[in-house]
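Same chain as my last thread, 384 residues:
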Amino acid sequence: MSDNPEVKAIQDAVKDIETSILAKTEKRMNEIRDGIKVKDYDAELKGLETEHAEMKSVLQDVQVKLGRLGGAGDGGGEQKSAGRTFTESKSYTERERGTRTSFGVELKALSSAAASAGNLIRQPQRLGLYEQPTEPHIRDLFSQGTTQSTSLIVPVRKTLTNAAAMTAELAAKPESDMTFEDKTFPVRKIAHYVKISDELMEDAPGIRSYIDTQLLEGLRDVEDVQLMKGNGVGQNLTGVYTVAPAYTRAQAGDKKTDMFRRAMTQLRLAKHMPTGLVLNPEDREAVELEKGTDGHYIWVNVGTATEPRLWGLPIRDTLALAAGEWLMGNFRRGAQIFDRQEARIDATNTDQDDFVKNRWTILAEERLALVIYDTSAFVKNAAG
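reply #2:
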């Protein structure tokens, strides 16, 4: 049971619903056994079960935001943010003021998984000048893994000929054909640093918030752009939007909600199940402000209260895409992020003239690869 009041309240509500479901189910079974006319509990039980599922969804969402779930979504101990890991490290707490020193702290990979640093930055605000980041990032949609290589060579499906057919007994079976080609997906680095004063470095809550809100969010903002629009040249990743097929099912008079629903069908016709939608904030606004002929907002019919969704798909709005640009796809199976190593925060007061100016250099970096298994698992806005 969590010590957080918000989580505890939801946990209690879920437990109450489970108790009610169990009691009503046992009562029904007893009446059936005793030959008593069974009351119609079906509608009530269905309502309780629906409420139970919704409450569990809310509970998981809250727990993830608080960084209390393990990477697989199961229960676990309280996790630490990157900033807290840094300020509670031995290197930080035992450093000597006024001496030249450098040290680094290994962090969890910057993923959105609850056990990683990326999602665990949501700690109580400590540095009044900055707001805590609350927006989810594009990484949240992808399957994620780790690697120790500097690049990954992955067989990517090139062609598929499905010859499956009804076959008579003793007859030769038809042969299907699937061809692959090896593609190399390099690991790339995202990094930046900031200069801070000795005074801020001495303020553990302050530097903790600074790392979480400035350094790590800065990496994630660039990561969003790379995952979507990296061109694969130089030190860039190859982004999914860059290689995704175009939307082809437009019809005259379609609103954005119609277009996104038709995009889902385009993916289904390509034998893929969409799992997410990424779009620009202006386009998300346009969707949410769409109205029916009687003036009512359509969004309330296709969205949910627990998280932004459209036609059941999780939404991520991002400035990594321009207005009018969007990407839908099966992010779980069509592509995967591989983190090269644990994310790292390094600190030193020996860079340039830091020592004589009483300041520190704080560096954050991550290394990752994006493997795209099947470009047909995605669809983006039509060209032009």
